[in-house]
Design goal:
Chain lengths: ~120, ~110
């Protein structure tokens, strides 16, 4: 059974940093690109970042480029998101999401999502 | 960036009725790389449809998708009580992958 469990959310001041993690199990983690998708309170879904299965390719939404860094540790089946220079508009539930097909990158939907972790940026 | 516009914003229907949700793209979605997700309050999204018309694993056949180019439709043939939720379309044919703003299907 595929499981994705996010952690690391919390309250942080504007300008601060936070590191999110997503522990994956139930599939061959290194074969699948993984993404972070966020959802502001009461709002819709926004894709944030993607990383290829090997970790060699990454992409970011313009809204977070230069501030967020996605990474993965395939030996530990873990996906990470380092978030720096946080702003109030980064407040959201952050989900990790798995690509549907092995070997795909961005031309794939998300077939499994974690339960999400809430990040609140406020003074 | 491809902008997806969903309509209506809210759909008020009774159990047993048919629901028709629309998703219109600002430019053509390549290879019909269009997906639909369902999200219930307090839950993460669930993939329903991919490739515009293929049902994801375990999705009941009352859910169907259609369309191509810039116009796509999700149809729920007969609403069950568990189908009342928010539905999002997503294009994944070009980067960044973008979502529509959602359609809420509520009980009338």
């Amino acid at each position: 059974e595929v499981q994705l469990v996010e952690s690391g959310g919390g309250l942080v001041q504007p300008g601060g940093s936070l590191r999110l993690s997503c522990a994956a199990s139930g599939f061959t983690f290194s074969s699948y690109a993984m993404s972070w998708v966020r959802q502001a309170p009461g709002k819709g879904l926004e894709w944030v970042s993607v990383i290829s299965g090997s970790g060699g390719s990454t992409n970011y939404a313009d809204s977070v480029k230069g501030r967020f860094t996605i990474s993965r540790d395939n030996s530990k089946n873990t996906l990470n998101l380092q978030m720096n220079s946080l702003r109030a508009e980064d407040t959201a539930v952050y989900y990790c999401a798995k690509n549907m097909r092995s070997g795909s990158y961005y031309t794939d939907p998300f077939d499994f999502w974690g339960q999400g972790t809430l990040v609140t940026v406020s003074s | 960036e491809i902008v997806l516009t969903q309509s209506p914003g809210t759909l008020s229907l009774s159990p047993g009725e048919r629901a028709t949700l629309s998703c219109r793209a600002s430019q053509s979605v390549s290879s019909s790389y269009l997906a639909w997700y369902q999200q219930k309050p307090g839950q993460s999204p669930r993939l329903l449809i991919y490739g515009a018309s293929s049902r994801a694993t375990g999705i009941p056949d009352r859910f169907s998708g259609s369309g191509s180019g810039t116009d796509f439709t999700l149809t729920i043939s007969r609403l069950e009580p568990e189908d009342f939720a928010v539905y999002y379309c997503q294009q994944y044919g070009s980067s960044p992958r973008t979502f529509g703003q959602g359609t809420k299907v509520e009980i009338k």
